[in-house]
Sequence to fold (386 residues):
Amino acid sequence: MSQSEVRAQTLPEAEAPTSAAEAEEKVLTASQWQLMWWKFRRHKMAMFGGAFVFLMYLCAAFCEFLAPYPLDMRDSKHVTAPPQLLRWRDDEGNFHLRPFVYGLKEHVDPISWRRTFTEDPAQIYPVYLFARTHPYKFWGLFETKVHLFGVKGEEATIFLLGSDSMGRDLFSRILYGARISLSVGLLGVLLSLVIGAVLGGISGYYGGLIDNVMQRLIEVLRSIPHIPLWMALSAALPPGLPPQQTYFGITLVLAVIGWTGLARVTRGKILSLRDEDFVMAAKICGTSETRIIVRHLLPSFFSYLIVSVTLSIPGMVMGETSLSFLGLGMRPPYTSWGVLLSEAQNIGNIAHRPWILIPGLFLIATVFAFNFLGDGLRDAADPYTR
Fold:
């Protein structure tokens, strides 16, 4: 590929030099990471996916502050309440400088005893930024009452996404659940990366009997359907484990199964690089084989490992959600997206309270964002290709 084509596919329009000579010089003097960044910036969906993923992890990290209610906050007067619409203009057409929500009025059907709620225009609850309402412990370290937004008053409520069957705010629980689901995916992939990089590196570098044994093991693990294997390993965990140990147990289960793909990528790259000149030079200098794998071979295709890790995180998140949905993963009082979706197993709940499916929309959006980000990184990992 010519240098002009490389420049057209890597340099953003805002950074494009005015002359061909400047463009060629900029490309020739740029590092591999600069070329990757320039090409990645041209992938608009990948940029959007990366921004969305960063936003979700930011929300998960500061969920106590962003959520208007603590995780265990219950309101017995507003069980299965519908979402409250954030408004700037009331029913009479008056504009309010501060956003507000209408209060909820409860109705009970005398025949079916079904509880429903309707908006009450007579009750107007302004929404305040940095409201001091319900106390919580930020990151479990220090206690505070400051929330990003909230309403004031004992009877005031703000259920942006409705409430569940126990009167808990669904929006707050989704934010708290994001911390569990997203961190399980990230931690599980990091463990898979270590296992896959080590075993794949040994398999590709030494070859022979070691390579055959490891590849047969990988084929056996990949031939078993993931969900039954997840269920079998999760069922092996003692049922009386504390939530913290269950969290790490589920993460370990997902990592033990998910390392095979990363091992295959590592093995393939090392097979193509182990006979290169820089590897032979390291051997001649007396470098140990472990140092050759860790310090010379693995960094040479680290960008491809980043791509594989990014594309593996959605599978880990889906795995934790599936196990929690089936009752084999996280359990109350800990909350994840799978725990929230477990209420959707009853078709009656979905028919009367469709907002309980909203955690699934967050899950779908996050998986799509990770896939867009992974596609952009995969294209940027080799900036000299079309």
In short: Residues 173-380 form a domain with the MetI-like fold fold (CATH 1.10.3720.10).
